[in-house]
Amino acid sequence: MKMPPWKMEILYPKSLQQRTIIFVLVPIFIFLTLAGVSGYRAVRNILLDQWSEAALAKLGKSALDIDLQLQRPKQVLLLLEGITDKVLSEGLEEIVKEQLGRVEGVLSVNITWVSSMARDELRFKGRGSGGGGGWFGRRANSRWLFDITPPVYNVENNSKTVAMVTDLVNKNGFKVGDIEVILDFEKLISRTAKKPWWNINKAYIVDHNGTILISTDPEQQEVAGGTRRVFGDNGILEQKTLEALRENISGTVFGPGRPPEEISGFYHLQEAPWIMIVVAPGKKVLKPIIEFRLVFFLSAMGCIGIVLLFIRIMISKTTRAINELSRTASDLARGVFGEPLPVYTRDEVGVLTENFNIMTSQLRKGVQLQKAMDIAKEVQMTLLPKTDLQGRGVEISGLSTYCDETGGDYFDFIDSDLQSGRCHVIVGDVVGHGIGAALLMATLRALVRANIYGGDRPEAIVSRVNRQLCLDTAEQGNFASLFHLFVDVTGQQLQWVRAGHDPAILFNTVTGTFSELKGEGLVLGLNPEYVFQSNTIRLNGERVLLLLGSDGVWEAVNEKNEQYGKERLKELIRANRECSPGELLQLVNESITRFRGGVALCDDITLVAIVIDDTL
User: Fold this and answer.
1) 304-329: b (≥16 Cβ within 10 Å) or e
2) Which of 111, 123, 126, 160 could serve as a FRET partner for 57 with CA atoms 20 to 30 Å apart?
């Protein structure tokens, strides 16, 4: 399925400006947006947690204040646990009222007895107990149980009051009366009502059923007939808060919205069945983060706009410079060299332009050098024999393959008397590659040819060539190996000098055996006083095949770093013993090429094949 062009343009923008917008500005915008949202959420959660902690701390402190005020009358009642019948006879009511009247916030105390008869009976039982009896309040788990009524308006005191009620029972567990302590409700919550958080937020005190006892919210006041509103009837937040306070002692609840429209906190009192609740607007709690979010996004958009404008200006300059570089590079690809490009800035583009000018200059020199190398290659190839050599009973062919444009390998065959089957065959290998080795090879060729025509024996020729070559290589330390073979078909012998070169391979096609033309000899160009010795072998009129080569033939490697080797070469010669020298060299060259695979030559390859046969 082919992709639409507009998608291709988005995924693969052509211009630098488009790529900058898509791959730089858009990711930066997305990153800043995600960072802002993440930061906003993190700070929002921190502020909500801080508000929760502060709200619960304030609620807990106010609840503790109310609990302490409720504990004071309870503590007085607990003192009655040790009253004896003697004190009882002096009047219990007066003692209790006197003690409770001293407690702050207590308006009145009412004691109601079940009956006088029951009272006398219990008093009599108290005396019979040995003076150890007493009055006890209603108990549960070693604590007195008190009922605290909702606040009501008391006409006599002109204020709202609550009643703390508990039962009086004897030591046998029988109820004999009730104690009712009337407390000033407004006095009870006066400290809480003066606190700022109570007045600036919606605050409530509710009972366990959710009935609102008092509230700062005008909408939650009593309805007609004195009916109290129930907390939880006004919105989702109240419902969620009511559910939470029935399961937990304290906590906070967030309303719907992001940020939440309202947040509530609640705290249970210990001494009364009441819960304190405060509800605050979410925007008020999160005001700092909301302002931060607005400032952040406005600043981010402004910064992105400024960055976009700046990048647009800079990219325009950069694009012009790059377009100029591209145009000049296109000219270079066509071989057109122009003037150096002007450098206007010192930034990366300016450095790139400078380097491009340097590269252009070096490339110009390289092109000129390549042309010179091509000419040198053509000249060097003219130094090698252009045709095979054929004479009485002998046929010779050679080839050279260089790993660079020029090389240091060299072969030559010079006829001495072809009518008699006499000729000289030379194979040389100069150390190194390239133009330097090629120049030394040309020198060696000239020296060999100049001395061969003097008519001396091979050892005398090689010795003179060595002395003459040492004059040129003494300072540089260059050297060359050489194999000089003199073929004499009429005399049925081979004579050779081996100057540090690999031995020639001789194959008798009649017997099918291989041998090597070995011999001692130092490479040329190191010791001008060295005297070379020749070696001789008889042919006995049999058809033989000789192969002279440089070490680049059997040292060629493949992708497994394996060498071609002489054994593989010998097998190829054995299998193609009837071929002409030219055909054999072609087969060897193709075999080495297949063996190498994709591996480049690391050394020059030179081969010379000679067939000696009286029938030729």
Assistant:
1) eeeebeebeeebeebbebeeeeeebe
2) 160
What is the three-state SS of 231-246?
CCCCCHHHHHHHHHHC
Question: CB–CB of 207/147 below 8 Å?
Answer: no
Q: Is the dihedral of CA 10, 15, 20, 25 positive or negative?
A: negative
Closest by CA position to 330, among listed 318, 320, 338, 319 = 338
Contact partners, residue 295, CB within 8 Å, separation at least 6: none
- Side by side, the strands of the sheet bearing 513-517 are 389-391, 394-401, 605-612, 544-549, 504-508, 513-517
The two beta strands, 212-215 and 250-254, are unpaired
CATH of span 14-81+195-301: 3.30.450.20
Rounded to the nearest 10°, the torsion over CA 92, 98, 102, 107 is 90
Query: Which residue do the tokens 């071609």 mark?
Result: 564
- Where along the chain do its domains lie? 14-81+195-301, 83-194, 302-375, 387-612
C-alpha R_g of the chain? 58
Main-chain dihedrals φ then ψ at residue 514, nearest 5 degrees: -110, 150
pLDDT at 417: 79
Query: What pTM did the predictor assign?
Result: 0.48
Element (H, E) at 160: strand 159-169
Q: Rounded distance, CA 607 to CA 419, Å?
A: 25
Give the span between the Cα atoms of 568 and 108, in whole angstroms: 127
Q: State the maximum Cα–Cα separation within the chain, in Å, rounded to a whole number.
A: 170
Residue 145, classed as helix, strand or coil, is: coil
The alpha carbon of residue 54 and the mean position of all alpha carbons in its chain are separated, in whole angstroms, by: 42
pLDDT score, position 88 = 45
Q: Which CATH number does the domain 83-194 belong to among 3.30.450, 1.10.1060, 3.40.50, 3.40.1350? A: 3.30.450
CA atoms within 13 A on the CB side of 495: 19
Q: Identify whether the C-beta of residue 173 lies closer than 8 Å to the C-beta of residue 162.
A: no
CATH class of 387-612: alpha beta
Residue 430 and residue 458: Cα distance in Å, rounded? Answer: 19
The span from the CA of 390 to the CA of 122, in Å, is 156
Task: Name residues of the chain where pLDDT drops below 50.
Answer: 1, 6-9, 82-90, 122-143, 223-225
Taking the C-alpha atoms of residue 490 and residue 404, their distance in angstroms, rounded to an integer, is 40
DSSP 492-529: TEEEEEEEBPPPEEEEETTTTEEEEE----PPBTS-TT
